[in-house]
Amino acid sequence: MKEYTRIFRGNVTSKYDFSQFKHIVDVGGNIGALLIEILQNTPNHVHGTVFDQQEVVLKAAENIAKHNLSDRCKTVGGNFLESLSVQASK
Predict the structure, then answer these.
(1) How far is the C-alpha of 29 from the C-alpha of 79, rounded, in Å?
(2) Where is the O-methyltransferase C-terminal domain (predicted)?
(3) What CATH number does the domain containing 69 carry?
(4) CA–CA dist 54, 41 (Å, integer)
(5) Range of 20's domain?
(6) Contact (Cβ atoms closer than 8 angstroms) between residue 17 and residue 46
(7) Is residue 51 included in any domain, yes or no?
(8) For residue 12, which of 43, 35, 44 has the smallest C-alpha distance?
(9) Is-contact 72 35, C-beta < 8 A?
């Protein structure tokens, strides 16, 4: 899956305009590679969240910080098969 994401992410970010969004959520985002690529290629008004299992998002947070995107990208740990207690903001 990681290799597929590496190949896929360059095509997505070069062919789709993500600047129309304020916030992008990558469900099952692993270490955040795709979302990092998107945020690096969009204006600063675009923010993101990587959602994955708790032990995975710890690594994602490190990767996000390594790319200097901690101010625009956060992580949320959980299981997408279970209900979440996170509220959407306007």
Answers:
(1) 12
(2) 1-83
(3) 3.40.50.150
(4) 27
(5) 2-77
(6) no
(7) yes
(8) 35
(9) no
Which pair of tokens denotes residue 38?
Answer: 């998107």
How many domains is the chain built from?
A: 1
In the sheet that holds 47-52, the strands lie side by side as 23-27, 47-52, 73-77
Task: Compute and round to an integer the Cα radius of gyration of the chain.
Answer: 13
Which amino acid, one-letter code, is at 62? E
* Residue 48 is assigned to a structural domain of this protein: yes
Residue 53 tokens read as 């299992």
Domain contains 90: no
Structure tokens at 90: 């306007």
Q: In 3-state terms, what secondary structure has residue 2?
A: helix
pTM higher than the cut 0.85: no
Taking only the tens of pLDDT, the chain with its 90 residues reads: 555 556 566 678 778 899 999 999 999 999 999 999 999 999 999 999 999 999 999 999 999 999 999 999 999 999 888 877 666 555
